[in-house]
Design goal:
This protein is mainly α. It has five helices and no strands. The chain is elongated.
């Protein structure tokens, strides 16, 4: 009898779960929660980033890099020429000592 009474009584800490699905755009969700609209600031930052990237591209062109290397190590110009000659002629079977090549 006690078992039947225990089963008939509802527990006091019963949980109720509910699921709510809301369909909205990210802008609508930000407005609903009171968050600021950051799109103008993001567009301005992306424009600045693009300007900086374009201005820095010239520094990393092959010509600029070689000029930096040669300016840094002027005494090694001949050594660098030999290095490039060996690198490019290494797979051709030539030894890099032909009449048009310096060694």
């Amino acid at each position: 009898m006690r078992r039947m009474l225990a089963q008939a009584r509802a527990p006091r800490d019963t949980l109720m779960r509910a699921t709510i699905n809301i369909e909205c755009t990210p802008a609508e969700a930000r407005a609903f929660f009171g968050l600021p609209d950051v799109q103008p600031m993001q567009a301005a930052m992306m424009d600045r980033l693009q300007e900086r990237m374009v201005s820095e591209m010239d520094r990393f062109s092959p010509e600029a890099l070689v000029n930096q290397w040669l300016a840094t190590f002027p005494q090694n110009v001949e050594r660098m020429q030999d290095l490039f000659a060996n690198m490019f002629l290494g797979g051709t079977g030539q030894d890099g000592t032909g009449p048009n090549l310096r060694r």
